Amino acid sequence: MSEEKKPRQSGEFVIRNHALPPVKIDASGWPRSEGPRTSGDFVIKNHALPPVKVNMIVPEQVFLELHLMLAAQKQPESMASRIASFVDRLDALEQNLGGSGIVWLQERSSSKNGDLTIIVTANDASGAADRFKRLAKDIPGAIGPYLAASAVVAKVYRVTPGGERQDEFEIKQPGA
């Protein structure tokens, strides 16, 4: 059997279709549970459901924003491990107040001219504003072992599902 080969034209794909004959399967000898089945037939039920429209609503979030005026002339970038340890301490303090921990929003936190801004949010928004207010009052004592700050400004605010910021609390304190 020789096939005559034609030269392929540019941009043309050659596909050989190998169609196999249908296969009949006799499943009558297979172990099966009792039920209304016919011999050798597979029954497939297709349950087409209507599409479901989903409105994605971002839940209200509560944030704690800390502005630390660092006493040392070091840049915050050089104190990264101390800053991370301080945020871990904030996490432990928030859990001691009955929360489920915090999330440090590093992409929103920043440093400028030796000042450091740390922004965190609560894992559990329920009661977070009250926990953050209590935590904000204790920041100067909590920061001492980690960072030398000459002043601390702590702000607690909410962001509504519509993206509107609502300030809840602000406190300015001398640092540790």
Question: What would you say this structure looks like, in words?
Answer:
By secondary structure, the protein is α+β, with helices and mostly antiparallel strands. The chain has a domain at about 60-175: Alpha-Beta Plaits (2-Layer Sandwich). The chain contains three helices and six strands; from the N terminus they run E-H-E-E-E-H-H-E-E. Strands 1, 2, 3, 4, 5 and 6 form a six-stranded antiparallel β-sheet that branches. Strand 3 (about 110) and strand 4 (about 115-120) form a beta hairpin. The chain is elongated. The protein starts with about 60 loop residues before the first strand and ends with a strand.
Instruction: Give the low-pLDDT segments.
Output: none
How is the biggest beta sheet arranged? 6 strands, antiparallel
Distance between the termini: 93 Å
What is the helix tally? 3
Proportion in β-strands = 25-35%
Strand tally is 6
* Secondary-structure-derived class: alpha+beta
CATH topology of the domain at 61-174: Alpha-Beta Plaits
Shape: elongated
- How does CATH name the architecture of the domain at 61-174? 2-Layer Sandwich
CATH level 1 name of the domain at 61-174:
Alpha Beta
Q: For the residues shown, what is the average pLDDT?
A: 80
Rg from C-alpha positions? 32 Å
How helix-rich are the residues, as a percent range? 10-25%
SSE arrangement, N to C? EHEEEHHEE
